[in-house]
Predict the 3D structure of the following.
Amino acid sequence: MLFFTVSRQTGSLGNEIMELLAKKLNLPVITRDLVMSEWLPEVANKHELHMLVESPGFFLTPSALGLTFAEHLEVKLKNFIAEQPAIISGLGAQIIFARHPAALHVKIMASREIRTNRIMQTHSLLKKDAEKFLELTDRKHKRYIATLYRKDWSDPGLYHITINTDFLSIEEVTSLLYNLAQNKQVTSPPLVKPFAEKVNRHVVFKNQSEEEFAKILDMYSLDWEYEPRTFPIKWDMEGNITMAFSPDFYLPRFNTYIELTTMNQKYVSEKKKKVHLLKKLYPGTNINIVFKNDFYTLLERFGLREGFEI
């Protein structure tokens, strides 16, 4: 079934249209508030959540899972849509699902004059304050997309349909989108097997922490490889390898290696040095470290901590 990504200017009636459309189609709405209150707390502490609210650039910071917060959000969105259709409000979804055959990317806008008048009425603001409010919110939307995806939020090429609500009511726009949803032919993407149906990989892990981390990756439906590559990082005078490094996991979707540091803290500095050397010797190689405290937090959030010892 078709699902919607909706980008909307403040004062364009976008929120009201999404709410009514969701009721007519019986679809959930995925909003920034839901992401911040339910999804990101899985991998972010209070300070990190505060930074994510304040700075779009912080989404590019590695989370407790080893992925950046932006990548974590992408995984959550794709897993949700694989299970059921929805209306996604903002979040760069028009870019994340740019080529998805079941997606309809909608931009809802209105002229600055109309939006200013609406904001003045709904928020009881003076005209100059309403204009300032619109300027700040428009800039915030543009900055999020530009920072995370290097795209222009206002680019019409990101959307299948752009709707101007200057002369269209909430009901008229909703009916238009409802009819599109009913009539658009959708080519269903390949089904993603749920976690319970995944084939046993027969991987022999070095320790329990690696096995539990693999379970968490499976819960996110993330493909992974265990120690797929060994990187030489030191050689002697004759060119013989004297030190090599095999990161614990590789995530093909994000071209990123993950190294766990759940052992005695005295070994953490050594691993950090190895990661630093790897990045220096192999430019362009993405590798993130998951530290002990972050790992324990993940175990607790997924109910895997009981009986676990390192």
About this structure: The longest strand covers residues 103-109. Residues 190-200 have pLDDT under 50 and may be disordered. The CA atoms of residues 25 and 178 lie 7 Å apart. The two ends are 45 Å apart (CA to CA).
